[in-house]
Amino acid sequence: MTAAPRDPVAPGGTIGILGGGQLGRMLVLAAARLGLKAHVYSDTRDAPAFDVAAARTCASYDHRESLLAFAQGVDAITFEFENIPSATLVTLARQRPIRPGAAALAVTQDRLTEKDFLTGLGIATTAYAAFGTLEEAREAIARTGLPAIAKTRKFGYDGKGQWTITHANDLEAEFSCLSGAPAIMERRVNFAFECSVIAARNDGGDFVAYDPPENIHGDHILRRAIVPSPLNKDQAEKAIAITGRIAEALHYVGVLAVEFFATRDGHLLVNEIAPRVHNSGHWTLEACVVSQFEQHIRAVAGWPLGDTARHSNAVMDNLIGDEAECWQKLAGQPGALHLYGKRESRPGRKMGHITRLLPLTGERDSA
Amino acid sequence: MTAAPRDPVAPGGTIGILGGGQLGRMLVLAAARLGLKAHVYSDTRDAPAFDVAAARTCASYDHRESLLAFAQGVDAITFEFENIPSATLVTLARQRPIRPGAAALAVTQDRLTEKDFLTGLGIATTAYAAFGTLEEAREAIARTGLPAIAKTRKFGYDGKGQWTITHANDLEAEFSCLSGAPAIMERRVNFAFECSVIAARNDGGDFVAYDPPENIHGDHILRRAIVPSPLNKDQAEKAIAITGRIAEALHYVGVLAVEFFATRDGHLLVNEIAPRVHNSGHWTLEACVVSQFEQHIRAVAGWPLGDTARHSNAVMDNLIGDEAECWQKLAGQPGALHLYGKRESRPGRKMGHITRLLPLTGERDSA
Lengths: 367, 367
Description:
The structure is a homodimer.
Chain A lengths: L13 E5 L3 H12 L3 E6 L12 E4 L5 H9 L3 E4 L6 H8 L8 H8 L1 H10 L7 E4 L2 H11 L3 E5 L9 E4 L5 H7 L5 E5 L3 E11 L5 E3 L4 E5 L2 E7 L5 H17 L4 E10 L4 E7 L9 H4 L4 H10 L11 E8 L6 H5 L4 E4 L10 E9 L9
Parallel strand pairs in A: 1-2, 1-4, 2-3
Antiparallel strand pairs in A: 5-8, 6-7, 6-8, 9-10, 9-11, 9-13, 11-12, 12-15, 13-14, 15-17, 16-17
Helix pairs in contact in A: 1-10, 4-5
């Protein structure tokens, strides 16, 4: 059921990238390595990806003329963030192939659609229920149990649009935070650890996955990713197989990340799907010959997928807020330092990351 | 005797790069990783480095107004090729720090000056003698012996401006090829193998070196670099120490490469010095956490030098002329594929390279 492979974008061709943050920037750098140019489209004047792009468009994501001109100058289109207006995707998809496609994005832009999609595939998630009114929120809690997390269905990231509900009598106060946005209640998982699968599928249906990292969050933001994770071999294979089923069902082309909770009794629950390269895969830049960014460009450009083998263990730490201000000290420490070229640091803003490689071992040392 | 460290170029600053070929392109990509912008200056419209540069100047290297405008927009200046007119360097050096400096370039731009410099440091080279006239060429051969290689003193690369002289009666015919350019005669070394040291020095006098690769040439062009080389530990240390003495004597800031002949009786002769990142160091992109390109940018920007440790063995093969045309096949093979974004392939033109990583071993397997 996979689409027939289209003509690949040859070296010298141009990949259009919607979004100009650090993910877009690292996609541009990966494209350059393969002899491909990048045209970055962002609504932000100082977008970090502009600095390395062969062509730049600074315009809003719903500016039709800019979108059409952008599409006409590129050979294939992709994006670095999932909250792209669907009208934008429709406009662009009439001009050039968008990978991954609008269907994959539609599923993952809405937490309820995504959970229902997973449930339809028989893939386990935490208990969830949609709600709009306070009355529905009460019913939702009755179904999910407590503690639960109320989340807006759309436009959330890094913990934005999320409220934890520990007691039923917190509900009314937290409900007001939603300002009437459609929402979903999810039972909070008492997990042993979190992990993710970074994988790629091309339009010929080939599927490859990196070794799953363990992910450690603080304040809802990824702080650290570690490979190998504590998953045993069977669990890792299961997580990769689940990711493969998701990619196949979405007719997905490109890199996707699936975040999992590993429960204390050894089960895997899908937390969420990111239809893009992912912060928990940044360590692939150093620990693998083909990084997640190059892998995504390969899939988008219709090239063969690359090797996902890992030659080293790795620990990736995000540099958040003012943590990158001591860049001279960080540059003098072992590890691969990445700074994203953002002009201003703000609390919670991802400014860079640092990856340390460690010798390859069969099993991770206990923490 | 090292200059006091100057203020480093902070993230968000701009590195000016003279030259827009693949070395410049890979320098830009390395700068981007550190949050630094690049302004590329090249006299070639389709320069590969333009595609990834934040700012571009396309002008001749002696266009004073363009050079001044370029200098005023950058925080530090470096270059990717050594044949920069000295007047250009003088103009730029009055505006911004150029690293490495004009003195290092003056020594390495002229094969005779370079050999005399090495001899003055007590560093062994092959026998050599300068000549200008046919009569002097005869005297030169009498001093160097045969076979010898006649080389123009300036502007040679990849075997251009070189003629092998096997018999004394070849001399007249080969002499005419020089068209009267000042030249040097070098005794051809019957080497066991060739190797190089890629090293970096910063303006604080810190010096670091990568493990020396073995280099295999064909038609005077590097075909393959392999780490580890057949050098034993003592030889490798000696080669690195020689490179350190050269860097120190030149008050060098940046990455330099020193090419060596390893003779059959175990001696090391310096072949030449390249005052820049070097083709034989491309494998550092994958086999080390900090590549030669990032190392150079760190030195030029006044940052701490990075770790040169190698986590894998590596074999780097250049893709020359039409060898990159089968890019789809190459992309499907193991290894890190790099394509330089050059529009046209020509015989002898470096179009890309591919690096395969191998598990780390103490000693290289015999070939």
